[in-house]
Amino acid sequence: MKTTLFATSALLLGLAAAPVRAQTSAARMLQYSEANKLPTYPLYISDQKTTHLVFPFPVTYVDLGSSGLIAAKATGAENIVRVKAASAGFPESNMTVLTSDGKLYSFVVNYQHDPKVLSLDLGAAGSASSAQGEAILSNSPIPQGNLDAYSRQALAAGGTSASESANQLSVRAGNVGYKQETLFFPLHVANKSNVTYDVDFVKFYIQDKQVAKRTAEQALEITPIYVFNGGLKKIDAKGQLEQVYIFKKFTIPEQKQLIIEVYEKGGGRNIKLKLANSDLLKARSFK
User: Fold this and answer.
1) Residues of the signal sequence (predicted)?
2) How confident is the model over 55-65, as pLDDT tens digits?
3) Rounded to 5 degrees, what angle do the CA atoms 233, 237, 238 make?
4) Other CB atoms closer than 10 Å to residue 264's CB: what's the count?
5) Which candidate, 196, 184, 170, places its Cα nearest to that of 262?
6) Per-residue H/E/C for 221-274
């Protein structure tokens, strides 16, 4: 009988103490969560404009709180996310982004018809500011900011791999540059006429040095991973244009050559340059 009473008393004491232990544990868990809470960034988006978020590391995961949000990584860039509203006036929602360094970014997202900020830079310190960060190109081991710096070096280095002039237009390919399995082709175009020159496109391709008669000409076009000053298309009268075309490393078989063609939009002032494999093998390394 004493044993039974003792057991019953112990059970009652245990039950009475359990809520206290549970409350204490909950309090500890709550304190732990508050101390380690991640910052949350406000984000305003529209269905009429796209907002870009620039992260310091490649993005590995994106979670959207509702179907009112649309998000995707920017084409060709591993660290930029494009965000847009699926429709006007969606209820407040959230978005979470994980980057390759293991950092988690949390956003509270609201609709705004005309957002004042369309680009945000989530810098290394995690603070959000108007975007000044650089893209991490998915097809290049070199960040965009460094590509720009090396391109300026390539343009300033001088030298000539090939040049051609016609119709008061002069095109010169400078000495090729090299860095981290990447080739830099500086291109200088001078318009010596009194008529504006509009660049339609610049084409790079590899073809045979000699093509036998009655044989179809085979050409392999190669596409740059990045073009420095690529947005510049107009050359004023007596003006100049300097660009750098950047490619993943490649070489040319001895019986072939690299052709660079510059085409005028709506005109016939087109120019062709020819480079040999030796021009690539003499590429200068950037420091």
Assistant:
1) 1-22
2) 888 888 999 99
3) 110
4) 18
5) 170
6) EECCCEEECCCCCEECCCCEEEEEEEEECCCCCCCEEEEEEEEECCCCCCEEEE
CA–CA distance, 244 with 146 (Å, rounded to integer): 13
Structure confidence by residue, pLDDT tens digits, 149-198: 999 999 999 889 999 999 999 999 999 999 999 999 999 999 999 999 99
Question: Can you read off the two tokens belonging to residue 33?
Answer: 């969560």
Amino acid found at 267: G
CA angle 179-247-82, nearest 5°? 100
Phi, psi of 28 (to 5 degrees): -65, -45
Give me the residues paired with residue 120 across strands. 53, 130
The pairing of strands 284-285 and 177-179 is parallel
7: which 2 tokens? 């057991």
How far is Cα 92 from Cα 66, in angstroms, rounded to an integer? Answer: 9
CA distance 155 to 104: 40
Domains of the chain: 40-130 (2.60.40), 144-285 (2.60.40.1150)
The SS3 assignment for 149 reads helix
On whether the CB atoms of residues 271 and 259 are closer than 8 A, the answer is no
- Secondary structure class of 88 (helix, strand, coil): coil
pLDDT tens for 63-98 read 999 999 999 888 778 888 999 999 999 999 999 999
Q: How far is the first Cα of the chain from the last one, in angstroms, to the nearest whole number?
A: 90
